[in-house]
Amino acid sequence: MRLSAYEVMPALAKHGSKVSALLAAGDEPYLVLSLMDQARAFCREAGFTERDLFEIDAKFDWNLFTEATQSLSLFSEKKIIELRFNNLPDRKAQTALESYFSHPEPDLFLLISTPQLKSAQQKTKWVTAIDKTGIVSFLYPPRVHEYPGWIFNEAKRRNLHLEREAVELLAQNNEGNLFSVIQELDYLALYYGDQSISEAHLKDALTQSSKFIAFDLSDAILEGDIARIHRIINAFEEENESAVLVNSLLQKEVATLREMLLNLQAGQSMQQVLSKVWRNKQPLYQRALSRISLPLIKNVMKMMVQIDQATKGQLKENPWNALRRVAFALSGERLLSLSAVAVVR
């Protein structure tokens, strides 16, 4: 069946046991990644405890895919096989997919992501083969008149309730920049939780965040801009912002960098690794990956656990000082240990 992005998850909830795959085709990274994340989470809840991930390029050995479809581990009854295409499927890929979907395995769920398919490509045999037993979703950026509705739905997914005027203001301020909208929604979710957000709330949040928003800190870290990092963290501390918020956002950034480094270590090219992030952020990540190592990430993750303890009063340490050390370490400065003492209760 062919469904829009917002129809996919309800369809999986209703027909999940009968659906063999999801094909998500689109050129807007966030739309593809978001839908794949939701489908992956659904599969895990449905008992698909094992997962094989394949990055597909022209040199990919399709025997690996065939072997994966024919084997389950002793500890798993269901498995996700994820196929990420950097380019449109070539003849070998199309043949392999047509062959598999002629008799799909009931204990496998295929998650397939590709660049957007043109109208003629959407009618090819391999797509229609998936269509028969799976879900096919062609993902397009929301058009101008669809944009407010898209923002509202994305807010709803984060348990945010935006009043109509707030949605319109957010749409006007971002002019179709999906990545910017998602950043601001994540920021609002951390600050306001599930309370209703009016236009006044949004204006206040944007004003407060416009100078030293936490996402700017992320960019400064990726760039290795020590002076800028220092200014941003100082401003957060002086304005009594939440160290928990900053630590949470940095944890997400560290997790992204860790996954990228693991993929590079597994043999993926830099181009493949960077294709998972927004195009305008790729130069920043490439610069960061050139100086950050997995051992450093491991140390930073330990420190971030301690920062969380410091914010809860379980360690005698100013969490902002610890955040500075983490940020400086990720920027290329030497990582100092967190000189803190556990609080005895």
From TrEMBL:
Chain ranges of the DNA polymerase III subunit delta C-terminal domain: 215-333
Enzyme class name: transferase
Catalysis: reaction(s): DNA(n) + a 2'-deoxyribonucleoside 5'-triphosphate = DNA(n+1) + diphosphate
Signal peptide: none
GO cellular component, one term: DNA polymerase III complex
GO biological process terms, semicolon-separated: DNA-templated DNA replication
Enzyme Commission number: 2.7.7.7
SUPFAM superfamilies, per the entry: P-loop containing nucleoside triphosphate hydrolases, post-AAA+ oligomerization domain-like
Tree of life domain: Bacteria
Entry keyword set: DNA replication, DNA-directed DNA polymerase, Nucleotidyltransferase, Transferase
DNA polymerase III delta N-terminal domain residues: 24-135
GO MF entry, a single one: DNA binding
NCBIfam families, per database record: holA (TIGR01128)
Family under the similarity heading: Belongs to the DNA polymerase HolA subunit family.
Protein name: DNA polymerase III subunit delta
